[in-house]
Amino acid sequence: MKLAIAVAVFFFSRLALVHGATDTKHYIVFMGDHSYPNSESVKLANHEMLASVMGSIDGAQQAVVYHYTRSFRGFSAMLTPVHAQQLAERESVVSVFESKMNHAHTTHSWDFLGVNSIHQYNHLPLESKSDVIIGVIDSGVWPESMSFNDTGLGPIPKRFKGKCVIGEEFSLANCNRKLIGARFYYKGFEKDKGPLKTISSDFLKSARDTEGHGSHTASTVAGSAVANASYLGMAKGTARGGAPSARLAIYKALWSNRGSDADLFKAFDDAISDGVDIISISIGSSPQKNFLADSLSIGSLRAFMEGILVSASAGNAGKPYTASNVAPWILTVAASSVDREFNANVYLGNSKILKVTLQSLVKEGSPLALEMVVGIREDVNNFPTSTIHDSCGTHPMGYSLSPLKMKRSYGVINASAAAAPGVSSKAASFCQNSTLDPTLIKGKIVVCYNVDGSSESFFVKQAGAVGIIVVRPLAEGIDFNLQIPGTLIERKEAEELKAYLEKQRNPIAKISLTMTALNTKRAPRMATFSSMGPNIITPDIIKPDITAPGVNILAAWPPSTAVDTKEDFDYNIISGTSMACPHASGIAGIIKSYHPSWNPSIIKSAMMTTATVLDNTGGPILKDPNDSPATPFDYGSGHVNPSAALDPGLVYDFDSEDIIDYLCGTGATPKQLESFLGVAVTCKYPPTPAYNLNYPSIGVANLLRSVSVLRTVTYYGKGPTVYISNVEQPKGVKVVITPPKLKFGNYGEKMSFKVDIMPSKNHSGNIEFVFGALTWDNGIHRVRSPIMLNLI
């Protein structure tokens, strides 16, 4: 998308007028910073402003849904497009935009990241006191889960200004020294979708989580250590969050994995004012909205200005140009696997074995059929620092794993050969409702082709089948919900199976239990579902920023009963960038506990520049489904490396003034920014290019001729040292660093350098993306920044 187009739609559009003058919609009116003495005075001013276009105070009061009063000024209200436009033209208004729905981007993983070793090697035990507060904006929390027990924690930090808000099935007693705050927001959702109880009788007007997503993410980021956690008795191990001694403040704004802008905006307003240190939010819009018309982007910018890092999921669309939460002040997290695979083999009647590996095939909310799974191991599996570095599904309540066992071999039939009367063989091959003849499949294993991955096993079970083999299209992700023994195979195995079925008159097979293999190669690898760059708002800023474990993650869940075995469980395994985000948030919390004075951009830089682009074989990180090398559009700077991030050597720091220059360059006016920030703003002319934001990665879109990119690093080390630059040259480009060496004497010293980027004169003229990297190395620290160039 051209920058001019992005700027043209950056703020409220007059096109809304086509909807008519009298139809009301839910709009957010954002006015930025304010100097009012209290919330009541903000509400009064909001009513007066709204009355000036609506004609009366009474009408204004009835129209308002939310007042935003604590961290910034604004309100949401039911308005006509005409009224919305009139408000957008006020000088004090930064932006007016319609409240839209956002979606959730719905453990061995911490051992894979080496978090145990961080605490051991730095003499900080897991149970040590911590005053770091992590706010989680999601679907709430199940407070009775042992992941949220407060054993060993000290008093609630006095600086915390939040509340434990009572509601349905949630009392003050549900908060403790771990869950120190709990709020909930539903008014925006109800305005957009109707009363909660008419949508689901399970909805509770409280912070209690009845869906699971919020409990899962909260326990992943900062859950207390829980011994013998498992799913249905499987995967036994110690479940824990990344920062188990951190405190949690819960902001419930999701209902059925959806949240309105108005509710999310209020959650940000409260979280910032409550005094959290990190905000973890596994939610996003698709496509990405322009920054000042997006509640998450605005809320996270206000958080950034208050010294709060916002970690957000990149999304589960799995295609180029789909990454969400791409503002440069947000840590945008992609999803990748850990060193664990699930093997469910198919034993054919001719003694051949189809070996099947299920590693990162699952979207969020997509259960796997497993026998032995996924517990977090007690041993430490740490990457050596020298070599390492949703488009979402709704989760069917009740099960994520199926411990069903196939005791003997059964006949096998292609679904296409078992079509019900009047159904074509092609239609039958997808195993959808009423497409199969029960008399032909009863007591057999059925081979189905995947459509959505979530219904085949249900329908074949209903028709009398005893097992299912799902053929997965090579380029598709899959929801894999099994209610009978089964497995999933790729095209290679499908060809072998097809040949066997064609040759044998009475083919038989047995599906093995799904077994877990640990310490597998190659890992990490990028998940099929993880959303990818380029950044559709500002292509010069590489997104995602980083990748973290998001495949088959075990974490806390509301008490549920498995549909297949009727067994109860309170830990569950799901996948998605929703699961990767809290891993990154937990690591940010660890860093904040070690370095309390570090601001969001420093924490972000530390995580990005120490990330690895190598897997546990020493080769490049690959991506599913076809094992091609991943690029910065997949993983940003690479796979997060917590140990190295605690001591990055050099950091790229940027502050609110840098963000002002960046926003000026994207089309924001001084008036809008003055209202936003509450200070006088002068935009530079010519504007600062986005590629000159002091970001930890380097990107230049639309590279037609030579450009010079400027960066400044700050030394966070001890004693004098010299860093030497090394460039992995992008194809068709020459990159020169000036100066090539940086000499530092003291902690906190800053030095600037220039990156001259010169396209080859022999460039073909075809538009293409090329990648490289700049690494500063002093023999102890390697500070790496990916380079992305769009040659035109």
From TrEMBL:
Keywords: Hydrolase, Protease, Serine protease, Signal. Residues 27-104 form the Inhibitor I9 domain. Residues 1-20 form the signal peptide. The keyword Hydrolase applies. The keyword Protease applies. GO terms for biological process: proteolysis. InterPro entries: Peptidase_S8/S53_dom, Peptidase_S8/S53_dom_sf, Peptidase_S8_Ser-AS, Peptidase_S8_subtilisin-rel, Peptidases_S8_3, S8pro/Inhibitor_I9, S8pro/Inhibitor_I9_sf, SBT. The active site is at D138, H213, S578. It holds the Pfam family Peptidase_S8. Residues 692-788 form the Subtilisin-like protease fibronectin type-III domain. PANTHER family: PROPROTEIN CONVERTASE SUBTILISIN/KEXIN. This is Subtilisin-like protease SBT5.3. It comes from Tetracentron sinense (Spur-leaf). The lineage of its organism: Eukaryota, Viridiplantae, Streptophyta, Embryophyta, Tracheophyta.
